[in-house]
Amino acid sequence: MDPSGIYRYEKFYFRMFTPMLVLIAIIFLIYAQYLGATISLVLGVLLIFSYQGTLIDTSRQRYMKYDRFLSLKVGSWQRLSTPSYVTIVRINLSSRRTAPSPIVVPQDKQGARAYKVNLVVEGDERFISICRGNRENMTEEALKLGAYLGIRVLDFSTREKKWIS
């Protein structure tokens, strides 16, 4: 939570087309197209400093999911329905975007898992995805969000579904 009383979660986000823009700039330089090289390089550098985040403002009952490039935020505020509880959910990573099945799981069975924090609300959207990462960080973030909103946290990441706050 930041000093203004708004819950904030933000994480660095690597975009795949950043290296591609640098390669395009090199190609432009090879062919002495300096304007194209400059534009590609500036866009590539801008996208290196890319973040994704979520803001929740309970005083105005709204939230925003945004992308931030340097100090420019791209996103819009949406109405926040009444929050019920926060969940931590285990997700299996997939090699294909449309496939729910996991990729070949490593022998330790830990490498193909990530965890996600969802805010369950009473509106039509049912839940709002807040963040994704490793279990320890997501547990800490879920507890922080639950304390900020004054609601309970459900650990849904194991077979024993249990309330942790």
Based on secondary structure, the structural category is alpha+beta
Spatial shape? elongated
Spatial separation of the terminal alpha carbons: 18 Å
Count, helices: 3
Beta-strand percentage range? 35-45%
Order of helices and strands: EHHEEEEEEEHEE
Number of strands: 10
Largest sheet: 5 strands, antiparallel
Query: Unreliable segments (pLDDT under 50, ≥5 consecutive)?
Result: 101-107
Number of structurally distinct domains: 2
Mean pLDDT level: 85
Helical amount: 25-40%
**Rg calculated over all Cα atoms:** 20 Å
Describe what you observe in this structure.
The strands form two sheets. Strands 1, 2, 3, 4 and 5 form a five-stranded antiparallel β-sheet that branches. A five-stranded mixed β-sheet has the order 8-7-6-9-10, with helices on one face. The chain is 27% helix and 37% strand. It has three helices and ten strands; from the N terminus they run βααβββββββαββ. It has two domains: 1-80, no CATH class; 82-165, no CATH class. The protein has helices at residues 17-30, 34-48, 135-149, and strands spanning 7-12, 50-57, 62-69, 72-74, 77-79, 83-92, 113-121, 127-133, 152-156, 162-163. With 165 residues, it is α+β, with helices and mostly antiparallel strands.
